[in-house]
Every structure is written in C-alpha cells, then in structure tokens.
Write a structure and sequence with these properties.
The protein has 476 residues and is an alpha/beta fold. It is built from nine helices and 18 strands. It has a 14-stranded mixed beta sheet. Strands 7-9 form a two-stranded parallel sheet. A two-stranded antiparallel ribbon has the order 17-18. The radius of gyration is 36 Å and the shape is flat. The structure holds 2-acetamido-2-deoxy-beta-D-glucopyranose (4 copies). The site of one 2-acetamido-2-deoxy-beta-D-glucopyranose has 4 residues, from loops.
C-alpha cells in the first residue's frame, strides 16, 4: 500500500514537472534574433501543435522591439488559435515552407482588431494553401505586401481581395491559378506590382487591371495565355515592366492599341510564338529593354524600333534569322547590347557583323553557359555559324580577340583533347610492348606456361579428376 502511494506520488510529481517544463517554453526557445538584430526573429523546426503552450512574455523588452517574425520549415497545417493576440507586436509576418493549408484564423474574435491592423507584410510563401477564404483580408487594413507564391491556389474570386484596399505588392507566382475573376483586383487602387508568373492562366479578362492605374510592374511569365484582349493594358500609364514571356500568342496581333504604354521601359516577349506587327512598339516610345528571343522569327524589320530613342538592349537570339539590319542608326549607341546568338548566320555574315560591333562598341557576347561547343560547330566568339568556314580567315574571332571565358573554354577543350591523346599513346605503347614480347619470345613464355600446367596437373587437378570419376558421378 505504502509503495503504491509512493509510486502514484512520484508519477504525479514527474508528470507535473514535465508539464511545468513544457509550459515554461517561451518564444525564445524556438526563435532567435537574426544577426543580433532585435527587430528580426527567425523561428525554425517549430511544431505548431505546441503553439498554445508557448508563453510570450509581453513585458520582455527584447521581444517588444521586434517587428519581423519569420517561421521557416515548421509544421503547421492550420492557423494557430489567437495567433495575432500572442504575436501582437508583429508587423512583418513570414510563415514559409511550413505545410500551411488553411490560413483561416479559427479564433478571430480573440484576436484584437488592432493587432490585425498592425500587419503591413504577410508572407506565406511555399506552403500548401489551396483556397483563400472570402474577405480574408478585411481586417488587415494596413496590409501593403502580400506574398502567396508557391502554394496551390487555383482561383482568384472577386471577394478575396475585395477589402485588401491597401495592397501595393501582390505575389502569386508558382500557383495553379487558371481562373481570375474579371473584378478580382477592382478595389486595390494603390497596387504597384503584381506577379502572376508560373500559373495556368489561359484567358486574361479584359477588365482585370482596369482600376489598377498605379501598376508599374505586371509579370505574366510562364502561363498559357493565347490571347490578350486589346484593352487589357489600357490606361496603365505608369507601367514600366511587362513580362509576357513563355506564353503562346500564336494568333495574337500586337497592335499599337494593345501596347499603348507610354512609360514602359522593359518588355519581355521571349518564347511567345509572336507574330511581329510593324507598328507594335509605336505607342511605347520609352522602351529601353526589349526581348524578342526564342520566337522562330525568320525576319525582323528594324523599322519596328524606329521611335525608340531610349533603346539600350535588344535580344533577338534563338530565332531563325540569317540577316538583320545591324548597321541601323538605332543601334549606334555606345554600349548598346544586341544579343544575336543561336540564329542561322552564315559565317562570313557573322564575321562582318562582329567587326561592325567591335567598331561601334556594341555588346554582343552570349552568356557563358550559351557558348557553343567549338569542337562540334563552326563558331565565332561562341556564336554558331553556318556554311564556309576558314580557320585562317576567322582566327581573330577564334583565338586572338576572344574573351577570357571563351579562351578558358577553348583551353579546357584542348586540355581534354591533349589528355585523351596522352592516354591513348600510353595505352598503345603498352599494347605494342605486350605484342612484341609475345611475338619475339614465345618459347620463353610458352615454356613457363607448360611448366605451370604440369605443376598444376601434378597436384590438385589430378586429385579432382579422381573424385570426379568416383561412383556417384558415373552414369548408370
Ligand atoms: C529551411 O529549409 C531550406 C531548404 O531546405 C533551407 O535552405 C533553410 O536554411 C531552412 N531554414 C532554416 C531557418 O532552417
Ligand atoms: C479552415 O479552417 C476554418 C476554421 O478552423 C474552417 O472553418 C474551414 O472550414 C477550414 N477550411 C478548409 C478548406 O479546410
Ligand atoms: C493610396 O495611396 C494614397 C497616396 O499614398 C493614400 O493617400 C491612400 O490612403 C491610399 N489608399 C488606400 C486605400 O490605402
Ligand atoms: C526574358 O525572359 C526570359 C525567360 O523567359 C529570360 O531568360 C530573359 O533573360 C528575359 N529577358 C530580359 C531582357 O530580362
């Protein structure tokens, strides 16, 4: 009896000690300041089931100055209860790579409204969010930056961002968005950047950006858009960056009305199957960077660039061009960058082009990872060319004047080549030596072989044959 009481008491004591220890865990057991910055806390390996047991000492001076808390690689499928009450000091909230599925706060009443209004930045990048609750952003009235990239969102309905009126930056890349409500961003009047790349958007509603006249960046890279309504970018008088690359505009006409964007400086139309329209850039006269690469273009008439006085960079690489008016006035600017690699240039044509580029200081070198294999192709400065190729005539463009990278590339190739030759030579010498020995001294070698054979037969081999001829192995 006595022992039983003792046991129960001990167990009780142990349990309460354990529970006390568990409850005593504080924020700082999980989170530490980043580089001694008292305003930035990083929390890792956090399991949110235990979240309710964390004590946050609101009087802790070192936490009270913090405003950015970042959870990384945690496990948190649901949103924790009274999160914003506990983290009432958070202004910038990051929950990244935490398997978060449901961001609905199950206990919104307990989260004081003022705590929600404090949030300026919310970053739920790399989670598993599929649906966004309607009106979710209603209470986050000061939210300016929202990052929901790399989740599993399929649809943006008209009610999701209805009250997210303070948003300036919205990142939705890397989701599975195929449906965009025509008025999805209608109330976000201060929006300056929207990133919708790496989604499955097929149709962009004509009115989608109608009210977002402050937009300066739109990224629609890597979607399935086949058609842009003619007025979709209408009135975007502040737009500077537009990425439409990696879509399929096979039947699209890029009319001046479509690209009526007076402030546009960067336009990426790479990998879009586009058809060039003579007037397509006539209403975006501020363009500085234009990418028309990877479009199977056989011909580009330079008159399409004629009004572009600020043009500094043009990419026409990865097309099927064999001619291009590279001597045009438009490109006669010091340090103009003209990317021309991966086309159908004839070698003499490419050589003339590079002599001209050198004289006018036009940049034209392909990125290092795009240097062609010089042992497989005729190539001038890493740019592939076709037809007649005369090493003496082109030596300036192969060795004399090559950039350090290409020289390194060549010496790497030559190094491999020399190593192969040396290896083959050594191999051949050994092979010849063996043959010579076999041919010239057969008696010596055969003699040794015979001696070995007889020695073998004299011992184990003959013993083995005795066993083999034993009764059980003889056929009946
Ligand atoms: C989270 O995981 C990523 C990728 O596995 C890693 O690069 C990062 O350092 C991790 N973060 C923390 C705080 O452990
Ligand atoms: C998300 O959580 C809320 C609150 O716990 C719940 O009401 C809602 O049904 C959940 N949504 C999904 C899609 O599971
Ligand atoms: C939009 O920006 C303007 C100017 O910065 C500001 O006065 C206004 O309050 C903002 N609107 C909202 C809804 O945040
Ligand atoms: C355009 O986008 C492609 C990817 O689709 C990228 O490789 C290229 O660098 C971009 N062009 C410019 C000028 O930034």
């Amino acid at each position: 009896m006595d022992t039983l009481v003792k046991l129960v008491l001990t167990l009780g004591l142990l349990a309460s000690t354990a529970t006390a220890a568990y409850h005593r865990k504080t924020f700082k057991d999980y989170c530490s300041s980043v580089d001694g910055d008292s305003e930035h806390y990083m929390c890792k390996d956090f399991v949110f089931n235990t979240f309710d047991h964390i004590e946050l000492n609101i009087h802790d001076q070192s936490i009270s100055t913090a405003d950015l808390v970042q959870f990384q690689n945690c496990t948190m499928r649901k949103f924790p209860k009274i999160f914003f009450k506990k983290f009432h000091w958070v202004v910038y909230l990051h929950i990244n790579n935490c398997k978060l599925r449901n961001i609905t706060n199950p206990d919104k009443d307990a989260d004081n409204l003022e705590n929600l209004e404090r949030i300026v930045e919310m970053n739920y990048r790399r989670n598993q969010i599929e649906t966004l609750p309607n009106y979710y952003f209603h209470y986050f009235s000061n939210l300016a930056k929202l990052d929901l990239s790399y989740n599993a969102i399929k649809e943006i309905s008209s009610s999701i961002f209805e009250y997210a009126v303070g948003l300036k930056m919205l990142y939705l890349e890397g989701n599975s968005i195929s449906e965009l409500a025509p008025d999805a961003f209608k109330n976000i009047l201060n929006l300056t950047s929207i990133v919708l790349s790496e989604n499955k958007i097929k149709a962009l509603p004509a009115t989608i950006f109608k009210y977002n006249t402050k937009l300066s960046l739109i990224d629609l890279n890597d979607n399935e858009i086949t058609f842009l309504p003619v007025d979709v970018f209408n009135g975007l008088t502040n737009l500077e960056f537009l990425r439409l690359d990696k879509n399929d505009f096979n039947t699209q006409t890029f009319t001046p009305a479509l690209l009526n964007l007076p402030m546009l400086t960067h336009l990426n139309l790479s990998n879009t199957e586009l058809k060039i329209n003579d007037e397509m850039f006539s209403k975006c006269s501020n363009l500085e960077f234009v990418d028309l690469s990877r479009n199977n273009l056989k011909k580009i008439d330079v008159h399409i660039f004629k009004g572009l006085k600020n043009l500094l960079q043009l990419h026409i690489n990865d097309n099927d061009l064999s001619e291009f008016d590279f001597k045009n006035e438009i490109f006669k600017k010091e340090n103009f960058e003209l990317q021309v690699y991966e086309n159908q240039w004839k070698c003499p044509y490419l050589r003339d082009m590079m002599i001209y580029f050198d004289g006018k200081k036009i940049e034209h070198r392909p990125p290092q990872d795009r240097f062609v294999d010089i042992l497989d192709y005729s190539c001038l400065r890493g740019i592939k060319c076709y037809g007649e190729f005369n090493y003496d005539k082109y030596s300036d463009f192969i060795e004399g004047d090559v950039s350090a990278e290409l020289a390194e590339h060549i010496s790497g190739q030559v190094g491999t080549f020399i190593a192969t030759i040396i290896f083959l030579t050594i191999f051949a010498v050994i092979a010849i030596a063996v043959i010579v020995v076999l041919v010239l001294q057969p008696d010596f070698i055969m003699g040794r072989f015979r001696r070995t054979q007889s020695a073998y037969r004299g011992n184990s081999f003959e013993n083995n044959s005795e066993i083999l001829s034993g009764d059980q192995f003889v056929a009946p």
